[in-house]
Design a protein that fits this description.
The chain has six helices and seven strands. By secondary structure, it is of the alpha+beta class. A three-stranded antiparallel beta sheet has the order 4-5-7. β1 (2-6) and β2 (12-16) form a beta hairpin. The protein is elongated and about 90 Å long.
């Protein structure tokens, strides 16, 4: 007895409802086929690496640690527009905007700046949408291999400006971190 069914792809499949004989009902043939696949894998070359002596090459689209960039004069590029927080699908970015005071001209480029800028690394999925959304190229995902260091406290995974901001020496010396593409 057979029944004709149509799958979602539109192709017809014939399904049979015949009774299994004694040997088929024991599933010995199926178990043997499964064991043969497992035994075949035992003799294949292993794909492990000797970490940390050897490291795998990074993918061209690899995205590592976030970094808030500075301009050539050492001022923060972020203008607290909030586009990075809006584009983040994991809602990992929070920020608070403040007005720049006249004596803070050497610290911030624009009249507005992010007084609080935090990324919750437990929520971040390293998709790079924050980097693409930023009109001032203020946030980058570097090629750093260490994405998030292990911690024992959940609050340690919330990275503030002090952890994310580019070091001042790097900005003044005009050395750029390895950027993700």
């Amino acid at each position: 007895m057979s029944i004709e069914t149509i799958s979602l792809s539109g192709r017809k499949k014939e399904v049979s409802n015949k009774k299994m004989n004694f040997w088929e009902s024991l599933y010995l043939v199926a178990i043997f086929k499964g064991l043969m696949i497992t035994i075949r894998h035992l003799f294949k070359r292993k794909v492990t690496i000797k970490y940390p002596e050897e490291t795998r090459p990074l993918s061209p689209v690899y995205r590592g640690q976030h970094m808030l960039m500075r301009d050539e004069e050492g001022r923060e590029r972020c203008t607290a527009c909030g586009l990075c927080a809006l584009s983040c699908p994991a809602e990992a970015i929070t920020m608070k905007a403040d007005e720049r005071k006249p004596e803070e001209k050497h610290l911030y480029r624009e009249e507005k700046y992010a007084s609080i800028y935090e990324i919750n690394m437990l929520r971040c999925i390293f998709c790079g949408l924050c980097e693409e959304a930023c009109p001032k190229q203020a946030i980058y995902l570097t090629k750093s291999r260490v994405m998030v260091k292990s911690q024992s406290n959940r609050e340690d995974f919330i990275y503030g400006k002090e952890k994310l901001l580019m070091p001042l020496e790097m900005a003044i010396n005009n050395t750029k971190p390895q950027m993700a593409n």
